[in-house]
Amino acid sequence: MDRPSAFGADNLGSNPSEAILQMNKLILTITLIIVSALFTLLITRATSPREIDDISPEIPCEQELMEKSDILWVIPKFNNIPITENTEWCNKILSLNKTLGLHGVRHTFEEFKINRNEEYLNEGISIFEECFGEKPTMFKPPQLKISKNNKELIRNNNLKLKVITNQVFHKVYHCQDTGRFSNKFINRF
Asked: Which residues are CB-neighbours of 87 under 8 A, at least 6 positions away?
């Protein structure tokens, strides 16, 4: 017994040109779907709010990048130095009139892949609130890595969690140009 062909050529009789036509239609359809998805992604990225990660007085950041970004992801205690020690910096960030989010607490490597407790997270929230006069409403873990327990910790503190999908659908810059893709690349795509 003959096995059926993957493209249904067995139903087309012995006409190989019909099988080729069917395969070409399938390839064209798949290509159109991929091109449409990429076009939609580019339009979405072009029209979504721009973001910048790693905002801290301890990390130099181009003023132009901060000004063109809509959301600033702040590290409250980078290098173990609370942002509240620099009230001039806090006021400067507030004067930009941007949406602010919490980007870890100390921004160590995969900081939230390790299970953290309420006290640890609250330290970052308190520093953020003291600097900016309000609690954060959004949280993005450093390197976008977060454990299941920490996801629950974030939700229990009424913070909206932003992870990899956020990076895909938004242009996300990094101070000091340290992201997976360069800021120049992010700006173009």
From this structure: 131
Element (H, E) at 100: strand 99-102
**pLDDT (mean) for 62-75:** 96
CA distances from 80 to 83, 105, 106, 139, 168 (A): 9, 9, 7, 19, 30
Alpha helices per DSSP H over the chain: 16-47, 63-68, 87-95, 118-132, 148-156, 164-169, 183-188
- Rounded to 5°, the CA angle 6-7-12 comes to 125
Q: What is the pTM of this model?
A: 0.83
Hey, what are 37's tokens?
Answer: 């998805």
